[in-house]
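Contributing: when you submit paired examples, paste them exactly as shown. First protein:
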Amino acid sequence: MTLRRALYRWMWIACLALPAWTLLGWTLFSRGGWALAGVLLALPLLFIALSGVAGVTALRPGVRGERALESRDAVILLLWHASIVVFGTFQFDAGWTVTAMVLLGLVAFWNALWRLIVALRRKAAEFTAEYQQMRTPPSVTKPEPDWQGEMIVIDEDQPRRD
C-alpha cells in the first residue's frame, strides 16, 4: 500500500520530471542536433500524455479515495516511466525505445480510461438501484386491532331517534 501511495504521488511529479529528464539526458548523452529537434518536439507531447494518464487515473473513485494506485496501474506506469527514463539516456537505439515508450503510453492511457468507465458504470448502477428503491412507495398494511370482543359503531350522519 505504501508503494502504491508513493506511485500515486510520483505520477504527478513525473508529469514534469520525466520531460525534464529527457532534455537533461540529451545534454548529458548528446546525440547531435537532430536529437535535440526530436526532444524539443517530444517534450510537450510527453507532458500532455503523462498529465492525461495521471488525470484519468486520478478520476477513478477508488484511486481518489485511497490516494493510491491499484496494482495494475502501478505496474503499467512503472514500465512506462522506466521506458521514458531509458529513452532519456539516448544510449540505445532510439527507434526501439520510442516504440516501447509510445506503446506503453497507449496501454497506460487505455487501461486508465477503461477502468474509469467500469468504475463509473458501477457507480451509476448503484445510484440507479438506490433511486429506484427511494422511488417506490413503502407498502402500507392495516394494523390488526389488538382488542377482542364486541364493537359498537355509531353513525353520526343518521338522525337520532329518541
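Second protein:
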Amino acid sequence: MVTVNGAVLRELRQANGLTLVELAKRTKIDRRTLSGYEKKTIADPRCTPIHRLARHYNVTMEHLLKDEES
C-alpha cells in the first residue's frame, strides 16, 4: 500500500516556515487533511491533494509517498 510520507511532508512544511493553516490556504487542501497526512492517520491518499503539495514544494509525487510493503 502506498501512503504519504508524513515525515517528509512535515519537514518540507517546516523548512518553508509554514504552519498547517498557511499551507492549507496556499494549496487549497483542508488543514485536517494535511494534519492527517503528517500524522499518518490518512492511509490512502487521493492524488489531487498530493499533486498540489508536490507542485507547491517543487518535488515529485513519489518524493511525498512511500511503499509500506518495502
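If you have annotations for the second protein, write them as plain sentences, like these:
The radius of gyration is 11 Å.
The beta strands are 2-4, 65-67.
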